[in-house]
Each structure stands twice: as C-alpha cells, then as structure tokens.
Write a structure and sequence with these properties.
This protein is α+β, with helices and mostly antiparallel strands. The chain folds into two domains: about 1-80, no CATH class; about 85-195, Alpha-Beta Complex (H-NOX domain), CATH 3.90.1520. About 55% of the residues lie in helices and about 20% in strands. It has eight helices and six strands, in the order H-E-H-H-E-H-H-H-H-E-E-H-E-E. The chain has a four-stranded antiparallel beta sheet with strand order 3-4-6-5, covered by helices on one side. A hairpin with a 6-residue loop joins strand 5 and strand 6. The longest helix is centred in the middle third of the chain and has 19 residues, at about 80-100. It is globular and about 50 Å long.
Length: about 200
C-alpha cells in the first residue's frame, strides 16, 4: 500500500523539526473528533520514538506528524489531504487565539496573507528563532490573491486548511484553488478569489 511505502521513504528524508504545539494540537483534534480509542490506536501503530508524549514548546521530527496522519487516514478511511486540510483549519483557530495581538490590526484574511512573510513570520522567528517556517509569497492577479507556498515538508494541504481557517476567522468567503508547481509537493500555488 502507498502508506507503507511513504513510511519507508520517510527514513531517507532529511529530518526537520516542527514545534511541539503542532503535535499537541493534532493529538487534541484527533481525540475530540475521532475519540480516545482511535487516538491510542494510531499512536501505537505509528510506533513513534516519543510515544506521542509531546510538549507544546518542544521540537520534534515532522515525519512523526506524517506517520500520525497516515495512521489516522488508515484508521478513519479519510484521505490524507482531507485530514491535513481539516487540521490546518483547526490549527488556524488555535493560532488566531494565541497570536490575537499580532492580527488585531489586520482588517481581513487577504491582508494577513500579504503580511505573512515580512511581518508575521518575522515576529514568530523572534519568539522561536529555531522555527523552520514555510515561505509564502503573494501577488494580485486581478481580483484574486495568489499565494505561493514553499516548504520541504510538503504540507500544501495543511496550508490550504490554514487558509480556510483564516478566511473563516475573518468571516470571509472566497474560492480557493490549489495547484502543485512541482511533482514533489514542495511548491504549491493557491489562488483565492473573493465571492
């Protein structure tokens, strides 16, 4: 199956870390939406070195998140892209509360997206200098905002969910199209067209 192949490939990928809050919030989302039993099963099947005992301030290999998502997909029969989008949307809700002061002067999601790279990520780096953040470039094409996502973690679907969560936070309606820019998933183009 494709998931077992992906797990094998993970061992040959350069290990990069993610902040523990990404893991702790994923665990909480799984617990609340799928239940304790499913959570315990995916943790056991993922065979993680940390046994999913994460702290919000720690740093952990992003491959562990990938393993948890793959196991959740197998257990729940929900496709991986859908799980990542749902988690991204959930996670923006957490970010919106945790970093409310950073976005309090932003009028809408489109403005926030344009400030990600040169303002929000700069502020996050001040708090977490070791954080490895994805890169987001933006430009306008007519009435549509185009966002270019770049990350070696290949979490474009998670980014899609973050975008959805941000728009929901600001009570905005927009269609989102997602286009991979390369085969390995490290670069994705999002086109956001307001309704």
């Amino acid at each position: 199956m494709i998931y077992s192949f992906v797990r094998k490939v993970i061992h040959f990928i350069k290990i990069e870390t993610m902040k523990g809050v990404v893991f702790t919030e994923f665990i909480e989302m799984v617990e609340s939406q799928f239940g304790d039993e499913v959570l315990e099963q995916i943790i056991e099947k993922a065979n993680l070195p940390h046994n999913a005992e994460y702290t919000a301030v720690g740093s952990y290999p992003h491959e562990e998140l990938v393993s948890l998502v793959l196991e959740l997909s197998t257990e729940s029969n929900v496709p991986v892209p859908d799980l990542l989008k749902a988690y991204g949307k959930h996670f923006f809700g957490i970010l919106g509360k945790s970093y409310a002061s950073m976005i309090s002067d932003v009028k809408d999601g489109f403005e926030l997206f344009q400030k990600l790279e040169n303002y929000i990520h700069v502020e996050v780096k001040k708090l977490y200098p070791e954080a490895e953040l994805p890169k987001f470039d933006t430009e306008w094409e007519g009435d549509s905002l185009v966002m270019y996502y770049q990350s070696s973690r290949k979490l474009g679907d998670f980014a899609h969910g973050l975008i959805e969560g941000c728009l929901e936070h600001f009570d905005q309606q927009a269609s989102i199209t997602q286009h991979p820019l390369n085969k390995d998933g490290t670069r994705v183009k999002f086109t956001l067209t307001p309704h």
